[in-house]
Write a structure and sequence with these properties.
Layout: E1 2-11, H1 18-31, E2 37-40, H2 46-56, H3 64-88, E3 93-96, H4 99-109, H5 114-125, E4 128-137, H6 140-149, H7 161-177, E5 182-186, H8 191-206
Parallel strand pairs: 1-3, 1-4, 2-3, 4-5
Helix pairs in contact: 1-8, 2-3, 3-5, 4-5, 4-7
The structure holds P1-(5'-adenosyl)P5-(5'-thymidyl)pentaphosphate.
Length: 207
């Protein structure tokens, strides 16, 4: 496993506020003259966006192993074509989800064996891991309420609240296992407050 200090991932269950906090962080980093590359998973490449369409299609049934491998197909393309070149060019890369989403959703949520999940992730990333993971922790109830208030649930959000409960526990376990690389925030707090706090910590970490 090779943690890259300039690769930062936002993680959390659906509706935890990742995209909103990431947008606020980006504004603050740009105001300071920074130019990070921001991405979302699955997606970020032509192949990845097409795979995203398959994965989020609520009508399309899939076996757990098929789902695991589709997420890795999108990720392998993103790592090879976008993330590694950007890191090699000295840019900071901030991703809305990365490999810990697979550990939490397909590992803890779907119950796929840990070795299977790790082998699949490794095939996609060749061991690249974020130097910093920002986890926005919310209850499944709050996350789903936020998604519902936008009037849509995708294939993954269609699963029961119990599924997101297992995903949340999986994330918290990963944070406990990697305290030097994970920062956990209460995602139920007011958005501006969260953005200020996350931005201050990211700026400190990036020096
Ligand atoms: N997935 C992904 C896997 O299963 N395995 C994998 O390996 C990967 C990479 C992706 C799905 O794929 C799964 C996880 C996901 O289910 P997506 O559409 O990209 O699907 O879903 P999410 O990444 O979950 O994006 P969401 O938009 O659902 O959630 P966010 O980004 O966490 O939440 P955000 O910022 O859009 O906020 C949701 C709403 O809440 C409000 C916002 O204004 C917005 O309306 N909000 C707040 N309101 C009050 N206070 C706050 N602090 C708030 N923060 C946000």
């Amino acid at each position: 496993m090779a943690r890259h200090p300039a690769l930062i991932a936002f993680e959390g269950i659906d509706g935890s506020g990742k995209s909103s906090v990431l947008r606020g962080l980006l504004e603050r980093l740009r105001a300071r003259g920074g130019d990070p590359l921001t991405l979302r998973e699955p997606g970020g490449t032509p192949l990845g966006e097409r795979v995203r369409g398959l994965l989020l299609d609520a009508e399309l049934r899939r076996a757990p192993a098929a789902e695991l491998l589709l997420f890795q197909a999108a990720r392998a393309e993103l790592v090879a074509e976008v993330i590694r070149p950007a890191l090699a060019a000295g840019r900071t890369v901030i991703s809305d989800r990365f490999c810990d989403s697979t550990r939490a959703y397909q590992g803890s949520g779907l119950g796929l064996p840990r070795e299977t999940v790790e082998a699949a992730i490794h095939a996609a990333t060749d061991g690249l891991e974020p130097g910093l993971v920002i986890l926005l922790d919310v209850t499944p109830e709050l996350g789903l309420n936020r998604s519902d208030s936008r009037g849509r649930r995708d294939a993954i959000e269609e699963r029961a609240e119990a599924f997101l409960g297992r995903v949340r526990e999986g994330y918290l376990e990963l944070a406990r296992e990697n305290p030097e690389h994970w920062l956990v925030f209460d995602g139920a707090r007011p958005l501006e407050e969260l953005i200020d706090e996350v931005a201050a910590l990211v700026v400190e970490r990036l020096g």
